[in-house]
Amino acid sequence: MSTAREQPIFSTRAHVFQIDPATKRNWIPAGKHALTVSYFYDATRNVYRIISLGGAKAIINSTVTPNMTFTKTSQKFGQWADSRANTVYGLGFASEQHLTQFAEKFQEVKEAARLAREKSQDGGELTSPALGLSAHQVPPSPLVSANGPGDEKLFRSQSADAPGPTERERLKKMLSEGSVGEVQWEAEFFALQDSNNKLAGALREANAAAAQWRQQLEAQRAEAERLRQRVAELEAQAAAEPPAGSEKEGPGQSLEQLEALVQTKDQEIQTLRSQTSGSREAADTEREETQQKVQDLETRNAELEHQLRATERSLEEARVERERARAEVGRAAQLLDVRLFELSELREGLARLAEGAP
Fold this sequence. Notes:
Low-confidence stretches: 124-163, 179-183, 244-250
Number of helices: 3
Helix content: 55-70%
Radius of gyration: 46 Å
Structural class: alpha+beta
Strand content: 15-25%
Number of strands: 8
């Protein structure tokens, strides 16, 4: 390719893929790193080409024709078919903006190719008014995808324009501190969550025990009521027995039997009352203890929820700080790639000057 005849009108960086000729479905990457992909205009032949070089080898050498179509298959990946090369090319960009720029330039080049064909058929000349960009106006693409269309990373290289060791160490330290802080907050968050779950389980068990104690209390009350009814029945029987006894036995014997029976019933009543009162007091004591435990558990649960919310806020702040550090690293990497691209353009310009020198 002669630099005097062809000049780049637009360049970007992307990962280059070609369709598998065997399956026509799978993508084959052209390399592990991103490559420079450029639109070239051949003033002599009045044609436009998309060219990407991998070392001394041309990875892409596609002449743009009016019937070509560039298709966006995802936010960062696009493709077009080249019938002359009998293949389909795919490009993975670092961002959706770079893909949009390349697609827009593809449409412009396609329209210019159509005009060029019409001009050539009419015998006229085409000066490519729609694509009057010089080589030094090529917008660089600082970010590239590291593993194809679905997995993005930052494109980095060693250069004299790279940030100094102190800046790199500071950025690494910020990222590591953010990661460690986030891990610590997450560990504390999960510990509090586990403690909260345990307290909730204990609260459920206490509620179940309280319900069981309430059932026992109701059963004891029912038993006391049954005993009262039994006492009333015995008193009624005692009141009904003296006339029957007086008919069979003498008055003195019947009176003694009634007194003994009354004393016996009184003792039974006292015993039943003492048992009922003792059961009631025990049930009341257990109920008060249960209520106190439930109140303590609710208080502890409220404290843990407050701590949990505070921990969540702290975790969110740590994540925001980490994102800020990542953004700063990204900006530094972008600056580095811009400098590298400018250095590459400068080297190419110096090489062309050296070749043109006598």
